[in-house]
Amino acid sequence: MLDDRARRILPAAPGVGYKPQHYSDIINGADPLGWLEVHAENYMGAGGRPIAQLRHLSERFPISVHGVGLSIGAEGDLDPDHLSRLKHLVEWLNPASFSEHLAWSTHDSHFLNDLLPLPYTEATLARVCAHIDQVQTTLGRQMLLENPSSYLAFAESTMEETAFLAEVVKRTGCGLLLDVNNVFVSATNLKTSPQEYIDAFPLAAVGEIHLGGHDEDMDETGAPLLIDSHGAAVVDPVWALLDYTLARSGPKPLLVEWDTDVPEWPVLAAEIARAHQALDAVPA
Amino acid sequence: MSVSQTAFTAGLLDATQAAPEGLVNPDGTPATKRYDVYRNNVAVSLSDALEAAFPVVRKLVGEDFFRAMSGVYLRMHPPASPLMMFYGEAMPQFLTRFDPVKHLSYLPDIAKLELAMRQSYHAADADPIDANAIGAVAPTDLMGLRMTFAPSTTMIKSDHPVYGIYLSNTDTSAPKPVTQPECVLVTRPQFDPQIHAISAADATCIESLIAGQPLGVAMTNAGAELDLGALLGLLLQQSTITQLN
What percent of chain B has pLDDT over 90? Predict the structure, then answer.
């Protein structure tokens, strides 16, 4: 059992995206595991096994609630029903952290089940900030906002993503979730430098770092097109980018994400071990 | 050129529409294939959700057919909420109208059963009454007894052998289904939904009780074929009754 204070903080240690098939590995496991992340929407049912498991896990591990359906970047209003379901979850679970994405997924009351991209303009900045204000006021806590994986750019964008995120932090007081795989995917796809992105990123606001795998494809010109699939091992250049980041940010809570073609526990345990090494190498 | 979310969404579910203007590759040319990544993500993720939701329907029509049918379904019925665990609510009605499967008249009820089991899985927890509680009711009060059921308890009445078809497609040792109308009771004693074949009389009795009618009325509605002792035994053993009034 964790005491109340330990449950409220994500430690600067590796955690893992929780999948029910790994329940007994995690509960009985000898692998050092600092915390767990769950997708908010999977725990919005009324009861049954998912809620019971989460309640039990939360007695053993700090929990990070990661939303995938709030549609913070939507042109329309946030869905009040979804926001109140989220409030209910955050109230009973009282997790260590809540995070969501710089993206949209709902339009005209249709949920599209994907993280769709935004142009970086003054208009979208104002809208995203208003929605984050609403979320933080409703939940009564700070949230973290995650940088997206980009496959394309908007001709209308007037600012860099890093400047956009820095301004969101400044206006709303939210924190950031830095996904280094997303940085690598976007930089490859948009032909920019991932290190320059990290250099420009407001690292002081980072409350959590994500690591995940991606798939490789190419566009019609033969240029590489990486797809953020969360269905593969983290590649070496992303581990290197993590080292680059940690050297500048200091130790942070690190999450290994694997959402599709989920492997047996030992495969994830090996990724977690590698995340431990990365943290151990950070100068104190 | 600003790309509205209406324009961005329109092409996602309609492959005949071109990618919206204003989305660009790193060299500034129109992002056609890159827009297709989003198209693909939406269709694949929704198809995957339907596959996970209706494994028996999928088995009955075949994997390839189900995938193609999902493509039609998700365009007609995109999710109305981010709770993907409940996606597919319109599948039974869709199957009654989708021409290529119209001859499989039992299919909508199989989808109904799979939906009911999923809803039962996520339904609110409720403490059952003590197994002896009904026995402790005074005989004179028995006919006026009303019961409250756990939210995880549901019933499907079908003109088709839904129980037999479901079982023979999920359990290799199950007997072949017999052509007959069947009623199925879905219960959740703890975490895993269970299905039980019950008689039409049992089903009518439960239906009346769930509707809030007293036991005496439920028995009359059910008729002579009701085996009340066996039915109450099943309901108690499956932790379905949460309150006696």
Answer: 98
- Would an 8 Å CB–CB cutoff place B18 in contact with chain A? no
Contact A51 B125 (CB under 8 A): yes
Residue with tokens 């088995």: B59
Q: Where are the domains of chain B?
A: 1-104, 124-245
Taking CB atoms and an 8 Å limit, are B3 and A190 in contact across chains?
no
In chain B, residues with a C-beta closer than 8 Å to the C-beta of A121 are 2
Q: What is the mean pLDDT of each run of 10 residues along chain B (245 residues)?
A: 93 92 94 94 96 98 98 97 97 97 97 98 97 91 96 97 97 93 97 97 97 97 95 96 96
Domains of chain A listed by start with CATH number: 4-280 (3.20.20.150)
Of B24, B38, B81, the CB nearest to A116: B38
Residues of B in contact with A84 (CB under 8 A): none
B140 interface with A at CB cutoff 8 Å: no
Report the gap between the CA of A175 and the closest CA in chain B (Å): 24
ipTM over 0.85: yes
Unique residue bearing structure tokens 């290799």: B172
Closest listed residue to residue A161, CA positions, set A189, A200, A127, A195: A200
CA dist A231 and A229 (Å) reads 5
Q: What is the pTM of this model?
A: 0.96
CB B94 within 8 A of CB A54: no
